[in-house]
Design goal:
Blueprint lengths: L1 E6 L7 H15 L3 E6 H4 L20 H12 L2 E7 L7 H10 L6 E4 L2 E4 L5 E7 L4 H6 L2 H14 L5 E8 L8 H19 L10
Parallel strand pairs: 1-2, 1-3, 3-6, 6-7
Antiparallel strand pairs: 4-5
Helix pairs in contact: 1-7
Length: 204
């Protein structure tokens, strides 16, 4: 089994980076392969050009997009790790979604409407915020990001969303115990979905 981790945070010492590291360590402890695409570290260009702004681009993918598409095709599990900024992922990750999940590649349209082209892949999403989970629930922000990631992204492309874990609060409002609890929940998610018999593909 091969995991692709798409990470978006500009600071190396961030909580988001720690979640990605905990996930990667847990995957490798199971003897499974993982590829990290740290978008800030690789300098991914998030700005779509005029052709990439089409529902179905006419031109061949740019070299940087083709590389990301190749990583996506090779993966069995696609995991996104990012903070929530203004009820959305950072612009660099939104741009990755815009440019890499192209029409005709990640999704298409048929007689019955939209259809995902990445069927068979599984996905996890890890997000975080400075707000508490209760604040996010009461304001409906949590509902908004779950719809964006679940229905609007992962499931739209045909992948199965195994779990979306949102951690909050992080930053100055979190204790060391809170952070360790969040990291352990990350490791537990890996063991739950990919350890032992539970690691079997949902289609058998």
């Amino acid at each position: 089994m091969k995991h692709l981790v798409v990470l978006a945070h500009p600071r190396q010492e961030s909580f988001t980076q720690r979640v990605a590291s905990a996930y990667i360590d847990a995957v490798q402890a199971l003897g499974q392969a993982v590829e990290l695409r740290d978008l800030y570290r690789i300098g991914f260009n998030p700005v779509a050009d005029a052709d990439e702004g089409r529902t179905r681009p006419v031109n061949e993918p740019a070299a940087d997009v083709r590389l990301e598409m190749d990583h996506l095709v090779a993966a069995d599990v696609v995991t996104f790790v990012s903070p929530v900024w203004w009820i959305a992922p950072p612009a660099i990750l939104k741009g990755w979604l815009d440019r890499v999940l192209r029409g005709g590649f990640a999704y298409g349209y048929g007689p019955q409407g939209p259809r995902g082209s990445l069927k068979g892949k599984r996905s996890l999403v890890f997000t975080s915020s400075g707000s508490t989970e209760r604040e996010f629930v009461d304001s409906r922000k949590l509902e908004a990001i779950r719809v964006m990631w679940g229905v609007g992204t992962v499931e739209f492309c045909g992948m199965t969303l195994l779990e979306h874990l949102h951690f909050g609060p992080v930053g100055s409002r979190a204790t060391a115990g809170d952070i360790e609890h969040y990291l352990e929940r990350t490791r537990e998610a890996v063991r739950l979905h990919f350890g032992g018999a539970s690691a079997r593909h949902p289609d058998g």
